[in-house]
Amino acid sequence: MSKNTLLIIDMLNDFIDEKGALYCGKAARAIIPFIKKRLETFRNRGDLVVYLRDTHDENDIEFERFPKHCIANTWGNEIIPELAPKPDEKVVPKKRFSGFYGTDLENILSTAGVDKVEVVGVCTSICVMDTVAGLADRNYKVTVPAKGVADFDPQFHEFALKRMKQIYGAKI
Questions:
Q1: Confidence category of residue 98, pLDDT binned at 50, 70, 90
Q2: Would you give the DSSP letter of residue 154?
Q3: What is the pTM of this model?
Q4: Residue 11 class from Cβ within 10 Å (0-12 exposed, 13-18 middle, 19+ buried)?
Q5: Which of 110, 132, 115 is CA-nearest to residue 123?
Q6: Residue 69 neighbours by CB under 8 Å, 6+ apart
Q7: Please, how many CA atoms are within 13 Å of residue 15, restricted to the half-sphere of its CB?
Q8: What is the mean pLDDT of the chain?
Q9: Which of 6, 97, 108, 129 has the largest count of CB atoms under 10 Å?
Q10: Residues 6+ apart with CB under 8 A from 29
């Protein structure tokens, strides 16, 4: 029997709340109900749920390219209340775009015997796409529901969906 996982990427106040430092816009808010339903489905089946949380130090090098955001232990770094994790669900802090870079995500998935991963969250063309690349490199079967991802830039969003399907073999 295959083990399914829901991977929720960066559904954090700084990206999803209008007051956030890097607010992704209405498109990001619009995916919340879909993700909430998927979260309920995965929880009800007893599947693994893993959250990736963009977490930066005050002087992170990434702030040379982006405004300061998701500083560790701040409101902006918190997962939005609508999708709050349960105490037994994994929350993996990450400092870079890929959920695999410098994290224990690979160990979490392999230890759980995961082979199918559904990816939702933001931003489609940045952290979602880079994490999906890492999943593809590790031979996971990946699904990225278009209704469950969003981006700052609609054109980059469409490009990322197309690239994840054609290059990484993700089911969109």
A1: very high
A2: H
A3: 0.97
A4: buried
A5: 132
A6: 14, 15, 20, 21, 22, 54, 56, 76
A7: 29
A8: 97
A9: 129
A10: 16
